[in-house]
Design a protein that fits this description.
This protein is 47% helix and 19% strand. It has helices at residues 13-25, 36-40, 62-71, 87-96, 108-137, 149-152, and strands at residues 5-9, 29-33, 48-53, 56-57, 60-61, 78-82, 100-103. A hairpin with a 2-residue loop joins β4 (56-57) and β5 (60-61). Residues 129-148 have low confidence and may be disordered.
Length: 153
């Protein structure tokens, strides 16, 4: 098992298997769902680091998925890979917080690059938050201490 688990939400089995093959070759562990309902019913154990989703699903759309992920507090990036991409839907996805929006056919390079970029951004964001949190917990007057009289003042 790999450390980076990605959920693929794609209703067409051949497309889902193709995406899974690409991601497995890029050393991602893969979970697969064929519908919005099955994606949302998967356990949220915190191990999924990203989602790759078709925009148009038989029981909803990727926007519903993105909204539900956010509502449930899941911070993983979502990359849309769709044959139904329009400028309007791409803008809407990005405004809602999608990490990227790719149109089919998508190359293995473009998909893995989009995921890796999204994960790097998430790591950087978490790094900044950790630094900010630790800076808030250290009282300024206790940052430097020493034994000489000048250092104690």
């Amino acid at each position: 098992m790999y450390a980076r688990k990605v959920l693929i939400v794609e209703d067409h089995q051949e497309s889902r298997e193709s995406l899974a093959t690409v991601l497995k070759k890029a050393r991602f562990d893969v979970l697969e769902a064929g519908s919005l309902k099955s994606a949302l019913s998967m356990p949220s154990d915190g191990q999924v680091v990203a989602v790759v989703s078709e925009l148009k699903l038989p029981d909803g759309d990727g926007f519903n998925l993105l909204g539900e992920l956010k509502k449930n507090g899941l911070e993983c990036p979502i990359v849309f890979v769709t044959a139904f991409g329009t400028m309007r839907s791409a803008i809407q996805a990005m405004k809602m917080g999608a990490a990227d929006f790719l149109t089919k056919p998508v190359s293995a390079k473009d998909l893995t690059q989009a995921l890796n970029t999204a994960l790097r951004r998430l790591d950087q964001q978490h790094g900044r938050q950790a630094v900010e949190a630790s800076a808030q917990t250290i009282p300024p007057h206790n940052v430097v201490s020493g034994v000489s009289r000048a250092m104690r003042e």
